[in-house]
Structure formats: C-alpha cells, structure tokens
Amino acid sequence: LSHSGACNGNCTGSSPGHPNKDCTCSHLSYNPVSRTSTGTGLNEDVITIQDTEGLKPGPYLKPDLGSSTNSPGVIFIGEGPYVLLPNIDVSKNLFYTPLLTNPISTAGSSFGGEPSTDYFIGVKTIKVNGDLIPINNLLLEINEENGEGGTKISTIDPYTKLESSIYKAFVHSLTIPRVKKVAPFEMCYKSSSLPSTRVGPGVPNIEFVLQGKNGETPSFIISGANSMVAVTDEVLCLGFVNGGENPTTSIVIGGHQIEDNLVQIDIDNKRVGFSNSLLYQQTTCANFNFGSTQGREIV
C-alpha cells in the first residue's frame, strides 16, 4: 500500500479502477541522509540484479533495452541456502525475533495514519559481559499513540544510537582505561591495551536480548569487530553514540554493528533473522563466490 494522502494533477472524474491518466498518487519522500523531505508523485522503475541459487551467481535479470551490469552485486531472495566460502551455509545458523510494526511513521514527514516503513524489533534488555544494564523498560516499547521508543535496524545510521539514559548506563558498565575522545565517539582506548581475537579487539561482548517465541530470548551478540572502530592506528573507539534525550526511536542499530552479520528480513513471516558475527564461522559477507556468468535478458 502506498498510504498516499494526496493526488497530483487532474483527478476529476477518477474512480477506483478507472483513474484519470493525468492523476497520480502523491507521497512525501524523506531522504534520511540529507534529512530533507519533498512531495513527489509515485512511479515505477526496474532495477538490474544478479540471480543466485545461494551458492554461486546466476544470470543477470534485467529489462529489455538493457541496463549496466558493470558493478553487479548479489542478493539472497528466499529461504536459502546462503552459501559463503569455504562452502558454509550460514542460513543454518539463523535465530529469529519478531518483526514489529510501528503504527506511526518515523520518517521526517508523512501523511497522518501512515505506519513506519522502518524495521523494528523487540529488545528486552542489554547485557555487557553477561551483566544486565539498568534500563527504563518503557523506552524499549513502541508507544502506540505517538510511535516513539522501541528499537529499529538502520543501514543509514553508521553507528548504533542509544537514548541518553540508556547510553549513560551502557558506557558506565565499561571499565576499560580510556584516552582522549575522538568525535563523534566519547569512549576511546589505546589499541595496544586491547588484545586481538578472531572476532576483533578483545573487549566485553555486548548482548541485545531479543523477543522470541515460546518464552525464548535469543540474543544479538556484538563482539569487538562490531563494537569498536579504529579511528587511528593507535586508537580504537566504542562505535556507539549518544542519541540524546527524547529521540523518536530509543535504540537505532547502525550499520557498523551489523557488518559481517547475515540479517534476514522475512516480511511474509514477520520476523528478522540474525546469524551473529560470521567471523565466528571463519567467513565474512564478502566471501560469496563472485565468479562470472553469462547474462541474459528478460522482458
């Protein structure tokens, strides 16, 4: 559904199934990078993607008259397998949490009654090195009246943002000796003071305890590779930032925290699957077999 609240052009005489050719649905388009909004008409387009059976690339699927395939990517659509080198089906190690609906849009602008298009999940609590962080649990719930609170996954925000009180409780639990901070981070450390492990710098694991089925509480575990950011050769910083007081969303899980994690957005079953760091399985997201294949056109 478009959830359009207005029309562009001449809509006189339009009816369901028989729209005026000059009448198009209008929408408020929000750009989360520039944080700007504009009104625009809805349209359709076609993209070029490369098919895959989950193990190796298949043909390019593209419209007639052709699109560029000079910079192909790979996308897994369906239940799997999701095979990465050296022949590891990472779909077998997914755990799931419900995909939640926020009934109120969290975009910079929207029509009234429009739900959020962001991917929300239910974080029950946060642990650092196995210890619970004291959090106001009301902040972890989505407020059905104004859409505030809760937790969403974002590939736009580079680092995880935590509401101010959550952030302060979180960093208070970390007792590693610090060095001068480097913006936008507040918690920085001397690289040489931290041991190196297979899953990144040897720092305490951060655990987001999630909603599960039948009383289960699966955990999204963030190890050193995803919690720390190398800002210089000598300094590592904690890749979490203070989201301020009263943000629209209490926890925004950023791109750095899900690097080299397989995250499956399962719309049909209303769930999100996590693999946790693929480094534990001695592989990475870049370890797909990107061998060449002959493309074909579809109309």
From TrEMBL:
Transmembrane segments: none
SUPFAM superfamilies listed in its UniProt record: Acid proteases (SSF50630)
Secreted among keywords: yes
Domain Xylanase inhibitor C-terminal stretches: 118-275
Keywords from the UniProt entry: Secreted, Signal
InterPro entries per UniProt: Aspartic_peptidase_A1, Peptidase_aspartic_dom_sf, TAXi_C
Family designation: Belongs to the peptidase A1 family.
Protein's name according to its UniProt entry: Xylanase inhibitor C-terminal domain-containing protein
